[in-house]
């Protein structure tokens, strides 16, 4: 994760909704999403959408959720 955080980025998008941000990830409009302090209910729906789109969802240690 640290390597990804130090990679060159074209920009940072702050949306205010974790589910919407994760849906942007699933659609390809974003390449990554990183957020501390989320709860399982913040991730539940978007995790299914991301997996169905072929993406992976993992915690900060790289373990799948």
UniProtKB/TrEMBL annotation:
Domain of life: Eukaryota
Positions that bind Mg(2+): 42
Keyword Metal-binding attached: yes
GO MF annotations, alphabetized: inositol monophosphate 1-phosphatase activity; metal ion binding
Any Pfam family matching the protein: Inositol_P
InterPro entries xrefs: Inositol_monophosphatase-like, Inositol_monophosphatase_CS
GO biological process terms held by the UniProt record: inositol metabolic process; phosphatidylinositol phosphate biosynthetic process; signal transduction
Cofactor: Mg(2+)
Sorted UniProt keywords: Magnesium, Metal-binding
PROSITE patterns, A to Z: IMP_2
Family: Belongs to the inositol monophosphatase superfamily.
Protein name per Swiss-Prot or TrEMBL: Inositol monophosphatase 2
């Amino acid at each position: 994760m640290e390597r990804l955080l130090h990679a060159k980025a074209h920009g940072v998008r702050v949306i205010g909704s974790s589910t919407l941000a994760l849906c942007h990830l699933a659609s390809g409009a974003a390449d990554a999403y990183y957020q501390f302090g989320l709860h399982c209910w913040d991730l539940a729906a978007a995790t299914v959408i991301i997996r169905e789109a072929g993406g992976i969802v993992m915690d900060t240690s790289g373990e799948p959720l």
